[in-house]
Each structure stands twice: as C-alpha cells, then as structure tokens.
Amino acid sequence: MKCLVCLNTIEPQVTWEIFLQLPEKDKLCSDCSHRMERITKPGCPRCFRTDSIGVCYDCERWEESHEGVLEKNVSVFRYNDFSKEVVARWKYRGDYVLMEAYQKDILKTFTLHYPEPIPLIVIPLSETRLHERGFNQSEAIIQLLQRESHQLLTRMGTQKQSKKHRSARIQSTNPFRLTKVIHDPVILIDDIYTTGSTLRHAASLLKKEGCPQVYAFTLFR
Ligand SMILES: [Zn+2]
Ligand SMILES: [Zn+2]
Fold first, then answer.
1. Who surrounds ion ligand 2 at CB < 5 A?
2. Domain with 132 in it: what CATH number?
3. Are 177 and 72 in the same domain?
4. Between the N and C ends of the chain, which has fewer C-beta atoms within 10 Å?
C-alpha cells in the first residue's frame, strides 16, 4: 500500500491487534500523518484560532459588526507549511483523492463537535473557478464526511462583478445569493478559515431569511 500523500510504501505493522481486526487499508504513512497538525485544544472557542486564550480579538470585532451571524467555526488541522503544500496539490492541481488520506481525522473532529444531523451547506465556487479546478472543495469535504450536501447558495462570478458600476459593486460585496430558504440550523462547509468573511457573507444571507443558527466546519485554520 502506498501513502496517498508522499507515495512511499507504507510498511504494514504486523501485530495481533491488526491480525484479529483484519487491517483496514491505511492510506497515510505515519510521517504524513504527524506533519498534519490536529487542533486538539483551540485557543478561541468561536473560530478555533490556536494562538489565543479565550475569544480572540477578531471574533470580538466580528461580533461588533456582524452580531450573532456565525455561532462558531470548528477546524481539524492547523494551516501550517505542510498542510499548505497538501492543499495546493489537492485544490489547485486537482489531486482530488489526496484528502481521503485524512478522512479519519476529519470525521473524528466533525462528529465530536457536530453530533446532531444538521444539514451541511455547500459554499459554492463561481462558474469560472469550478471550471478551472474541476471540483468544489466544499462538496468534496461533505463526501468525506459521508453526508448529503445541500445547495442553498450561488456565487456571483468575478466577471459579472467587474462589469457593474462601482456603486453597484460596493453595494453587492457579498458574493453569494440565496437560492433556497431554510428554517433549520445549518453547518457551512469550507476548506480554510482565514478571515472568516466568506463564511459570514454566506451566513448573513441565511440568517436574514430565517435560518436560526449558522455553524461552520473547515479543514484548516
Ligand atoms: Zn506519506
Ligand atoms: Zn476567534
């Protein structure tokens, strides 16, 4: 068996445990597993930032400008140098199966924080981006979670935006449009939480139309 990430052969460790359980096929070597840093103790409970004690400054600022829009974000891994490399291969070079190597960790963190069967909402890409990449990372993550994906949003293409008059552009900085209203809590699924603005743009539309709570789940923070 080869590691999906580094392509080195994974040496199976023969133990009684494995013998009795019938080994599940490991898709990840121990090195590539260790280099992906799991967030076990988030510093900020709202956004999973690791280098803060309690609610971070950014989250406080967000609450001032977008009060109650996003309940919280849960992330699986730190966006360190190694994960940046993996993400680049996965997302920009179309190595779609790469993230399967980390499926176990992704599922574990997800079910720990979100045990309820809350609908998972896709963060859409613009047509152009989707065409360039060949897949939507948000949908790919929902597949890894072995759950059904819900499409409630569309994303305006950047071309359409630039053709608009400046004043119209400023008014429509939110790149999303809501296509379907939902009156149940939802979880937005995306790959990386950087500033949190993408998720809040999506969440604010959902909340405005009656969604009671919007949560987020991202792979990297
Ligand atoms: Zn490896
Ligand atoms: Zn925070």
1. 44, 46-47, 49, 56, 59
2. 3.40.50
3. yes
4. N
